[in-house]
Specification:
Distance between the termini: 62 Å
Protein name: 3-methylcrotonyl-CoA carboxylase biotin-containing subunit
Keywords: ATP-binding, Biotin, Ligase, Nucleotide-binding
Organism: Pseudozyma antarctica (Yeast)
Cofactor: biotin
Strand order of the largest sheet: 29-28-27-26-32-31-30
CATH superfamily of the domain at 8-170: ATP-grasp fold, B domain
CATH architecture of the domain at 8-170: 2-Layer Sandwich
Number of helices: 20
Bound molecules: adenosine-5'-diphosphate, magnesium ion
Oligomer: single chain
Largest sheet: 7 strands, antiparallel
GO molecular function: ATP binding; metal ion binding; methylcrotonoyl-CoA carboxylase activity
Strand content: 25-35%
Structural class: alpha+beta
């Protein structure tokens, strides 16, 4: 654990600051803007710090500059909401911008003012620099917070603001430029003595030349868009034979997502860890590192769960990574929040390499806030206002252990493909802290910031969506972030598992069940993390629902049937045939309350079920007959059980134990026949797995294709998906919809094959 020596030196600053923040946190709950007393208190202490560590300090602060009165947030979703919460706590007014698709979004509701800046497509709204600057100027917002994604790492935008009277809440354009290219930044790092993954980072993009370079590096190699981010524009080539296709695909994704097809080639490490360092710098020459984060568990090179501190790292190595990260920031005259990402040899972590620097606030910054007790958005505001870093290296204290789990709308069983749709139902775990830090706990633990000494389950949810909101194809599929903190890693994992059990989402598929499995996986609990974690342990309990027994599933189905019973009973009492007068094919008009009621249900793993529900006093006896076995539940009560019905998912029942199950009501025979006929013939065809855009169709009718050959390339959520031939076949026809640029809904037939 990173325990720095300043324990002794620190109290005057940190306790007061903590106390002030605690008051602020309480006050913000009542939405009262808080005046910034903490700055006044901090001031006289600063000069003594200069004496303590001359190397990290430039000019001592001479009076603090005020924070802005109003800022514009050029983003959406959870990060926009999270930035606004800090602004509210500090009494700063907020201006939101939004696309037509987001008119009812949470960030629009949460802001003090909001302005529509264009259609759904990011290029016409959230990426419109001119419109965003115009809104800032018109509303008198003096700063723009770019969040992450969108314009956050856009040097041209930072430069545009540098020419205006509005401050960019990020590093200078020159630093974004220097670090914005994964290749140029590696040259800078090598010059600063930081090791990089061996590879070719130059400007020659000739395919034959690049293939030669790949040969020199040795396979497997990784092809990366130099301007890439979010795991996009990255392709692995295991063999020379795969290089050509991988290069083409990487370049295409790079051009489309980042406006630059330039790639670099580097050695692909097979079992590395991803460890990154949070750095912060001010305009006075101070720079610090605030703990590292391990983000190794990834799918499609994109993080799923992050933690701080990184498990199983020697204290010395932690410090070395921190110091290298600060050196990186200093090498480019960095200002503000940044992240320096390293890749480590999982077996020999002392072999580490610089990967890239993200010149913005990172998605996973909350884990750092949890273990440091700081609000990094507040720090960004301080730095942008021209003030010194609120604390310097010696004053930072890291304690406890934090995790962040990203809740994504995606189908974990279908290779984590993003999903979209309306959030029919969302229920969050009970949270103990609304924003950045653990200071809400201060009063309970006797005025001391943090969890030292006492068990405190800290649970925070950063979300930008509530029930009824839409997860749209146009933007990132991340719904929320669940952040927890405990005194140590084991405790934090337990808190996370418990919070995930309470997290309920109905609508698009989500990765919640996967996350539940992950935090209970023995290897994850041991901290045996690496980027290949899912590939390595996928077979041992990461997918499906391995921790729930058949009886538990049946009990959940029994509860779902009780819900159906009660719904029909309520409708019958109202004299109608179904709830809210919506008669359906499943309504039983003869049903009367207090009678036994039978349901024919279909469950994904249990198969067809016959369920009978009989009310007994204020409880229910339920019999669940499955093919294999019959289970009888006597005297079931419904306390703490939630059942939700949605068009796409049928019924979903959430048990207070965290067991979740979905099932559907079997339609009458005549109805099933009609629907089958409407759906048309299946088999021998390739369909779009989700709403997407056609990028390329590589085949023609009559063509012979080999199993595994790429036939159609789709793009959804800015990610390319290659649809491959399921077998050797002859193409029978290509759908008229299968043309580059066409938008197709889910399950659109694109290509058909001749029968075998
Ligand atoms: P990285 O994977 O580079 O370490 P993060 O995991 O912090 O970065 O994710 C940020 C990346 O994810 C962005 O660079 C962007 O590609 C994508 N992203 C996440 N959220 C958004 C958003 N709201 N808008 C656009 N892009 C986003
Ligand atoms: P992005 O900008 O998309 O975040 P990065 O360069 O940070 O791109 O890489 C994203 C992820 O890809 C890393 O976290 C790591 O899991 C994996 N990765 C990157 N470089 C390598 C490499 N050379 N070998 C193996 N895995 C890598
Ligand atoms: Mg990265």
């Amino acid at each position: 654990m990173l325990r720095t020596t300043q324990l002794v030196l620190r109290p005057r600053v940190a306790v007061r600051r903590g106390a002030a923040l605690a008051t602020a946190a309480l006050a913000s709950a009542r939405m009262v803007p808080v005046v910034r007393q903490l700055h006044v208190r901090r001031e006289p202490i600063a000069p003594s710090i200069t004496v303590r560590r001359a190397s990290t300090v430039a000019s001592p602060p001479t009076g603090l500059k005020p924070l802005p009165a109003k800022i514009l947030i050029a983003n959406r979703g959870e990060i926009a909401c999270r930035i606004m919460r800090t602004c509210r706590r500090l009494g700063i007014s907020t201006v939101a911008v939004f696309s037509e698709a987001d008119a009812k979004a949470q960030h629009v509701r949460l802001a003090d003012e909001a302005y529509c800046i264009g259609p759904a497509a990011s290029a016409e709204s959230y990426l419109r620099q001119d419109k965003i600057l115009a809104v800032a100027q018109r509303t008198g917002a003096t700063m723009i917070h770019p969040g992450y994604g969108f314009l956050s790492e856009n040097a041209a935008f930072a430069a545009l603001l540098e020419q205006s009277n509005v401050t960019f809440m990020g590093p200078p354009a020159s630093a974004i430029d220097a670090m914005g290219s994964k290749s140029a930044s590696k040259e800078i790092m090598l010059a600063a003595g930081v090791p990089c993954v061996p590879g070719y980072h130059g400007s020659n993009q000739d395919p034959t030349f690049l293939a030669q370079e790949a040969e020199k590096i040795g396979y497997p190699v990784l092809i990366k868009a130099v301007k890439g981010g979010g795991g996009k524009g990255m392709k692995i080539a295991d063999t020379p034979a795969e290089f050509g296709d991988a290069l083409e695909s990487a370049q295409r994704e790079a051009a489309k997502s980042f406006g630059d097809p330039t790639v670099l080639i580097e050695k692909y490490l097979t079992a590395p860890r991803h460890v990154e360092v949070q750095v912060f710098a001010d305009k006075h020459g101070n720079a610090v590192y605030i703990s590292e984060r391990d983000c190794s568990v990834q799918r499609r090179h994109q993080k799923i769960i992050e933690e701080a501190p990184a498990p199983h790292l020697a204290e010395e190595l932690r410090r070395e990574l921190g110091e290298k990260a600060v050196a990186a920031a200093k090498a480019v005259g960095y200002v503000g929040a940044g992240t320096v990402e390293f890749i480590l040899d999982a077996k020999r972590p002392e072999n580490f390499y610089f990967m890239e620097m993200n010149t913005r606030l990172q998605v996973e910054h909350p884990v750092t806030e949890m273990v440091s007790g700081l609000d990094l958005v507040e720090w960004q505001l301080e730095v942008a206002a021209g003030n010194r870093l609120p604390l310097l290296q010696e004053e930072l204290k890291i304690e406890g252990h934090a995790f962040e789990a990203r809740i994504y709308a995606e189908n974990t069983d279908a290779n984590f493909l993003p999903d979209t749709g309306r959030l029919v139902h969302v229920a969050l775990p009970s949270t103990s802290t609304l924003t950045h830090s653990n200071t809400a706990l201060a009063p309970r633990s006797g005025g001391v910031v943090g969890s030292e000494g006492q068990a405190e389950a800290v649970v925070r949810v950063d979300t930008g969506f509530v029930s009824g909101d839409e997860i749209s194809v146009h933007y990132d599929p991340m719904i929320a972030k669940l952040i927890v903190k405990g005194r140590d890693r084991t405790e934090a994992l337990r808190i996370m598992a418990n919070a995930l059990n309470q997290y309920q989402v109905v609508g698009p598929s989500t990765n919640i069940q996967f996350l539940k499995n992950l935090v209970r996986h023995p290897k994850f609990i041991e901290g045996q993390v690496e980027t290949g974690f899912i590939a390595k342990h996928g077979e041992t309990g990461l997918f499906g629902d391995p921790y729930t027994s058949e009886v538990q599933l049946q009990e959940a189905v029994a509860q779902g049937a009780i819900w159906l019973y009660q719904r029909d009973a309520a409708a019958a009492l109202r004299g109608g045939e179904a709830a809210e007068g919506k008669a359906s094919i499943w309504t039983n008009p003869a049903f009367r309350p207090a009678q036994t009621r039978r349901f024919e249900l279909q469950h994904k793993t249990l198969g067809p079920l016959r369920v009978s529900v009989t009310p007994v006093d204020d409880a229910f006896d339920v019999k669940v007959e499955a093919k294999q076995a019959t289970e009888e539940f006597k005297g079931l009560r419904t306390t703490g059980v939630t059942t939700v019905e949605a068009t796409r998912t049928g019924l979903t029942t959430f048990m207070p134990t965290g067991v979740v199950t979905s099932f559907s009501i079997v339609a009458p025979g005549w109805f099933a026949k009609i629907s089958e006929a409407a759906a048309g013939p299946v088999g021998d065809a390739l369909a779009s797995p989700m709403p997407s855009k056609i990028v390329d169709c590589k085949v023609k009718a009559g063509q012979q294709v080999k199993k595994g050959e790429t036939l159609v390339i789709l793009e959804a959520m800015k990610t390319e998906i290659a649809l491959k031939a399921p077998r050797d076949a002859v193409i029978k026809s290509i759908s008229g919809k299968c043309k580059p640029g066409a938008l197709v809904p889910e399950a659109t037939t694109l290509v058909t094959f001749e029968s075998e």
